[in-house]
Amino acid sequence: MSNFFRTKIEFLKGIGPQRATLLQTELQIFTYGDLIQHYPFRYLDRTQFYKIADLDEGLPFVQVKGFVKSKELLGEGRKQRLSVVLQDTTGELELVWFKGVKFMQTQLQKGLEYVVFGKPTVFNSRLNMAHPEVEAVSEIKAEQSFLQPVYNTTEKLKNHRVDSKAIGRIMAELLKLAQPQIKETLPFSLLDRYRMISKAEAMQNIHFPVSIEKFNAARFRLKFEELFYVQLKLLRQKTVRKADLKGQVFRQVPTLTEFYNNHLSFDLTNAQKRVIKEIYKDLGTGKQMNRLLQGDVGSGKTIVAFIAMLIAHDNGAQACLMAPTEILADQHYVGLKPYADKLGIVIGKLTGSTKQSDRKVLHEQLQSGEMSIIVGTHALLEDVVKFKNLGLCIIDEQHRFGVAQRSKLWQKNPRFIPHVLVMTATPIPRTLAMTLYGDLDVSVIDELPAGRKEIITVHRYDSHRLRVFGFMREQIKLGRQIYIVYPLIEESETMDYKDLMDGYESVQRAFPEYRISMVHGKMKPQDKDFEMQRFVKNETQIMVATTVIEVGVNVPNASVMIIESAERFGLSQLHQLRGRVGRGAEQSYCILMTSYKLSKESKVRLETMVRTNNGFEIADIDLKLRGPGDLMGTQQSGVLDLLIADLAKDAKILQESRAAAQEILEIDPELALPEHENIKQHIQSLQANTVNWSRIS
Ligand code: ADP
Ligand code: MG
Questions:
Q1: Please, which residues have CB less than 5 A from ligand 2, an ion?
Q2: Mind listing the domains of the chain with CATH numbers?
Q3: Lowest mean pLDDT among 30-39, 202-211, 609-618, 630-639
Q4: What DSSP designation does 7 have?
Q5: Residue 534 burial by CB count (10 A; 0-12/13-18/19+): exposed, middle or buried?
Q6: What average pLDDT does this structure show over 181-206?
Q7: What Pfam family is a match for this entry (predicted)?
């Protein structure tokens, strides 16, 4: 961006210091560059009008064209209002104003034709529109674009007469000045290949489209550019990292072969095999691996982790598997120990509750290299834990660990940064993964082991609770165990706590013959673990809990998941919770309990859960419902501050722009070729802008 775009907005005709301050504080618009990128959030189609007779209350904002038949001031003083009757060939519509009454009265002329934009509502069983936008047809200039931009603004700005229209006027002014200054930011080869219009033409047409074709072309071009630069940045980070970080080379696999041939009690799924190949390939390159493994709950990530750890062992290195909770670490350890024993590999477990005397032994075994595999919690991060040669770190359930913690693991091998495999059961749609983890390689297990029974999911209203209790009783008689989960948005919310307690008591009353565990966030970790363990050991039949049980817990005998106030959970979270059942051979069930009062969006979530068990499909729908900002684990990610592209909708453009970025970096990693000069410059100006931003906010 040239210096022109760094000009402060107050220098623009029609702005001045007061409005400039407002635009800064209200919309974070400081410079010409900020302003020109304040894209319209929607457009009024000047060619589309509703007939008055076709209006009804269910419609959103609509546009009507008609003549003013009458206008009249009604009421007194503060209750005064202006009532105007607009007429077209099909009927009449009342327009009302409660504010700016006098002004509007002089503006609107009887007998003239107007275009009116507003939301039809019913008042006193008559259709009307309150405070619509109006414009005299005679004043709409021929050259005025047929798609009229509508800009985001705020109440405060509007009070200072900076409404959408005013922003439009300012924008027109700016565009006139800016046109000769707008530089092309994409290489000609790309413009040519994707038949994209120039940046200058795109900027003009995103604000004031001259035709629908040009408008679409402008949108495509600007979205492409935005995503292209995000991807370029991520891909360059990745290349830099790969070039810099050497990793140990692991190629030998004797123990793995023995394990595979003699001890693995089931066939790996094709997806597991593919992922293992991807990991093995990474480990042999001499570069440090940084891989994200996504797999739905129950897809069998643990065995993949174990196999990766065997590869490390086979090449004289050690491996650690870090879980977010003690109970998960326990489960991993209990599951893997028998395998390790058969293979003659020393495996250990280190958590917060490991006894001091045991710790000493563990520390020694790790430092001497005698122990090959260690499973644990954050306790692994402590400085006293030293390895002879840590070669591979596996992190289960990635979003519970921060970047800082991950880097602590890295420091445990001064010679080679360990290879890293991050495992998550939170399925992230591919488009999002590409953007969020563009700097990681992504592997996906998209297949469940054969013979798994689909979990049957149903939605029941609270009024059917007695029947649900009856079903629970049947299942317990069959020997199964049951989870009942209550929402807990904030662990401190006393109301949620009360819900949980009330629930616990009513379950106790309903099932006096059975034993019940309860786990929630206010409990001490030891107490929580103790209660969990009772359930794991089948000493209790029912587990009443908050979402603390969400992550990874494996109780194959638990076959029923009841989610209370299910409408209060996000879709991905519901899916995570459901994944706690369906881990054994028995048919499992998930029952979503709600009241009758459901929002439209809650209904979509519940229907989706009932319809599908596919985590990726669910993640996609979740993304569409909520937008990327709310998805698990994405909150801190700055890459999602997109101005025009939409990750939920622009998957195809994202893919194309990523491929384009990849291709360019392959040919010209340093962006040194003359035809890529403008890319390089644009990156620099983007970076300059980022610095600005961080200084301001
Ligand atoms: P997750 O991906 O949720 O961590 P786990 O690794 O805990 O899943 O696996 C769930 C269960 O499936 C475990 O009991 C595991 O032994 C079993 N499992 C894993 N892979 C297979 C397979 N290919 N065939 C049959 N069972 C498998
Ligand atoms: Mg797991």
A1: 552
A2: 48-144 (2.40.50.140), 254-445 (3.40.50.300), 456-612 (3.40.50.300)
A3: 630-639
A4: S
A5: middle
A6: 95
A7: RecG_wedge
